[in-house]
Amino acid sequence: MKRLVWGAVLATGLWSEPLSQGERDRAMSHMHATRKQFLDAIAGLSEAQWNFKAAPERWSIAECAEHIAVSEDAIFQLAQQVLKSPAQPEKKAGQAAKDEVIIQRTPDRSTKVQAPEFLKPTRRWATRDVLVAHFKESRDRNIAWVQTTQEDLRAHFADHPVFKTLDAYQWLLLISAHSERHTLQIDEVKADPGYPKN
After folding, report:
1. Which residues have a Cβ under 8 Å from the Cβ of 173 and sit 6 or more positions away?
2. What is the pLDDT of residues 21-58, one digit of tens each?
3. Which long-range contacts (CB under 8 A, 24 or more apart) does 149-152 make?
4. Is 198 a member of any domain?
5. Which CATH number is 29's domain given?
6. In a domain, 14, yes or no
7. At what angle do helices 168-191 and 21-42 cross, to 10 degrees?
8. Cβ neighbour number for residue 18 with a 10 Å cutoff
9. Residues β-bridged to residue 158
């Protein structure tokens, strides 16, 4: 009888655990920090600097910024889809160790990764101001969601092409770690010898 009750509890999600305050604070802090990092990196650029390409196959700052903005929404939506999968609380053990791996390894530019087609820049936004406004709105929404959600983010899982199995919380960490990665790419564009001085 106890086994039946326990199974019913798991099946109905009554045994779900919301994020700890420490987990919330870590995700929100990283989101705030990388938000500022990105916005500072693109502030005050001339049109020449915004659109400069070090080589035809390399992305401009405009293209990096678009990729960051579109990925902000796409990864958040992926995290929401992960939460619709059946809870697997038995997989939680040891999974939290990947948090630091995501934070540290995602920004590492020594490993190149090809962006999927749906995340490649295609000039989705008419102007830089519209792109920036969209990013700010999306990032602020994501921070607010992390602050208030009562979902058991640690009990739902999906595979990532590099990091393999990630829980929904780790997909959220990936949002800000990914924006940090491409903000560093913006810094690489600025460091190119041909980058316009103004």
Report:
1. 27, 30, 99, 102, 103
2. 999 999 999 999 999 999 999 999 999 999 999 999 99
3. 149/18, 149/19, 150/16, 150/18, 151/16, 151/18, 151/83, 152/13, 152/16, 152/17, 152/18, 152/87, 152/89
4. no
5. 1.20.120.450
6. no
7. 20
8. 14
9. 166
Domain that holds residue 76: 19-191
Query: Using an 8 Å Cβ cutoff, are 45 and 61 in contact?
Result: yes
Q: Point out the residues of the chain with pLDDT beneath 70.
A: 1-15
Tens-place pLDDT, residues 143-161? 999 999 999 999 999 999 9
The predicted structure's pLDDT at residue 135: 98
Q: Which two tokens stand for residue 114?
A: 């090809």
Answer yes or no: is 177 within a domain.
Answer: yes
Q: How far apart are CA 39 and CA 150, in angstroms?
A: 30
H or E, element range at 164 = strand 164-167
Alpha carbon 92 to its chain's center? 21
Quote the number of domains for the chain. 1
- Domain assignment present for residue 12? The answer is no
Closest CA to 176 of 147, 140, 131, 133: 140
| Side chain identity, residue 146 | V
Residue matched to tokens 């102007």: 127
How many Å from the N-terminal Cα to the C-terminal Cα in the chain? Answer: 74
